[in-house]
Amino acid sequence: MNESGTIQSMLTAKTIAVVGLSDNPAKASYRVSAYMQAHGYRILPVNPAVESVLGEKSYASLSELPEKPAVVNVFRLPAAIPAIVDEMLTLGLTDLWLQQGIVNAEAAAKAEAGGIRVVMDRCIMVEHAHRL
Fold first, then answer.
1. What kind of architecture, by CATH, is found in domain 4-130?
2. How far is the C-alpha of 44 from the C-alpha of 18, rounded, in Å?
3. By CB neighbour count within 10 A (0-12 exposed, 13-18 middle, 19+ buried), where does 78 fall?
4. How far apart are CA 73 and CA 10, in angstroms?
5. Which residues on adjacent β-strands are paired with residue 73?
6. SS3 69
7. Which of 18, 37, 64, 88 is 20 to 30 A from 52, alpha carbon to alpha carbon?
8. Are 80 and 104 in contact (CB under 8 A)?
9. 3-state DSSP helix/strand/coil % of the chain, to nearest 5
């Protein structure tokens, strides 16, 4: 978890599903996703309470996405992570990024045991900016 090579590999992927992406520009999920989108990433919003954000249709769950994302970036409380991991395992998704402040060691261990690479408690925007 949090290996430099894994972080670098995830940053080279160009399609990111953002679970918990808000349409409120004051929220971190919006700011981080807007930054990543401005740097050439395709953002796939996953939030059942939002119709669209950043010019993209929002989906209720990972399983409803029209394409397979390279990375699943999560802006949800730690208690929501186990269900996200289960859905990723079912769908065969392999890269999970838990944003800064989101820690669920048990869910991360289950993800890794199932073949999912995990970055936890790191900001994808900060990591991207450091590697420019």
1. 3-Layer(aba) Sandwich (3.40)
2. 6
3. middle
4. 10
5. 18, 97
6. coil
7. 88
8. no
9. 40, 20, 40
User: For position 131, what pLDDT does the model report?
Assistant: 83
3-state secondary structure of 68: coil
Give the start-end residues of each E strand in 1-132: 15-19, 42-46, 52-53, 56-57, 71-74, 95-98, 117-120
Domain ranges within the chain, ordered by starting residue: 4-130
pLDDT along the chain (132 residues), means of 10: 92 97 97 98 98 98 97 98 98 98 98 98 96 77
To 5 degrees, how large is the angle CA 101–CA 112–CA 95?
A: 70
CA-wise closest residue to 90 among 59, 63, 66, 117: 63
Cα 40 to Cα 119: distance, rounded to the nearest angstrom: 21
pTM over 0.85: yes
Measured distance CA(40)–CA(106) in Å, rounded: 33
Place of tokens 């080279």: 12
Count of CB atoms situated within 10 Å of the CB of 10: 23
